[in-house]
Amino acid sequence: MILPQVDSEERAENRIDPRVKRTRKLLLDAFLVLLAEKRYEEITIQDIATRATVNRATFYAHYVDKCALVDDFIRETFAQTLCRHQSTSTDTIDSTREYLHSLFLAVTDHWTRTNAECPQDYQMFESLAEAQIKMQLRDNVHAWLRAHTRYGTQDHQRLELAATIVSCSVYGAGKHWIQSAGKQPLEVFANEALPFIAATIAALDTQTAVS
Description:
Helix content: over 70%
Largest sheet: none
Low-confidence stretches: 1-12
CATH architecture of the domain at 66-210: Orthogonal Bundle
Number of strands: 0
CATH topology of the domain at 66-210: Tetracycline Repressor, domain 2
Structural class: mainly alpha
Number of helices: 9
Mean pLDDT: 83
Strand content: under 5%
């Protein structure tokens, strides 16, 4: 089973005033509704505030600009997607294959939904989303490697390197499938791609054991 990740950022999030969380949700929900009606560059902060039934000052009390709201939006939506795919695998998550599968499905699910909900803004969101998704994947992989491999006994720098390699590989595999969607069924692609990443974990773990 994956160990719960309770890092400093998560602890800070848990300490946020419930009223602040409600206001942020209003702003995020308003942004999502507006995104279905118009292009990203056409949405103003006043539009978001009005739809959320707050004033501009309230918006700026939570976000410095529209990009900061988008960053928060991507972080929240991918975190929920990742949690959803991993919550169904808690009994088998000790398996490297099952664990990587949950990450892969989270990445492909996120981008499939993004392309469907805001196809016009895909390119604009891609760089922001990539940074957020890779960061969350890296943190998740870091916790899993620490709990399920010999990396738990290694120094922080070595563990970070391994987590970065694995998370970037999973993200890359997911994006490759999205970009070539229709050429190969999702599960067929996963069955071909994920063993390569699992082998990387095994190889790195073996190197750790003999170092």
